[in-house]
Design a protein that fits this description.
single chain; about 210 residues; Ribosomal Protein L25, Chain P; RNA Polymerase Alpha Subunit, Chain A, domain 2; 2 domains; six-stranded mixed barrel; five-stranded mixed beta sheet; 4 helices; 14 strands
């Protein structure tokens, strides 16, 4: 993954009043923090942030913050969004390094039409995304599984995943993540899915490993 450049300026003032003034100018407040760094108050363009994180990698996109002539690697760690307009209001950037692993979540997707589905079974993904640990430049845009050969009754576990080099799913290797189930097993699978979801709360993007 290549880093996307994002320009930012240091701001002196904070609070609701200065924030409103910034938004009138088409800008929003932000903060940059992380290991060995005192938090830095910033000003950024919301449209530039959105362009950077609405592509393939989403909030896992590696960013190169330009601040006063200096460049810093970062990830978006949190976003504040207006609940009505959906406009960005504030961004938290987390300082990272290419030699320091991060933990985050990436989409879990499938491709192809499973053999078991063609016979009347149902494909069930137990998770929409999976927790991964990797160096920031190695975080994949998604984990995609070709299910075309999966017959009725097939169970896929974390240990069955073919992951890119340097990428680790942090669930237990035996954890089930996908099923090709017959209709009569639907209730049991729903119960397991609910239990699994409750045991795996999402971690913030870019959180330190």
């Amino acid at each position: 993954m290549e880093a996307k450049t994002l320009k930012a300026e240091v701001r002196e003032k904070s609070g609701k009043g200065p924030a409103r003034q910034l938004r009138k100018r088409g800008l929003i407040p932000a903060i940059f923090y992380g290991p060995g760094l005192d938090p830095v108050k910033l000003t950024v363009s919301p449209s530039a942030v959105q362009r950077a994180i609405t592509k393939e990698y989403g909030r896992n996109q590696l960013l190169e913050l330009e601040i006063g002539g200096d460049k810093h690697l970062a990830l978006v760690n949190d976003l504040e969004v207006d609940p009505v307009t959906r406009n960005l209001l504030h961004v938290d950037f987390y300082k990272i390094a290419k030699d320091r692993a991060v933990t985050t979540h990436v989409p879990f997707e499938t491709k192809g039409r499973a053999l078991g589905v063609q016979k009347g079974a149902k494909l069930r993904r137990l998770f929409r995304d999976l927790p991964v640990r990797a160096f920031p430049q190695d975080v994949p845009a998604a984990i995609i599984v070709d299910v075309a050969s999966f017959d009725m009754g097939h169970v896929m576990r974390v240990s069955d995943l073919e992951l890119p080099s340097g990428v680790e799913v942090t669930f237990a290797p035996t954890r089930r993540i996908l099923l090709i189930e017959a209709k009569e097993t639907k209730v049991a699978a729903e119960e397991e899915e609910a239990e699994a979801a409750g045991a795996a709360p999402a971690a913030p993007a870019g959180a330190p490993a």
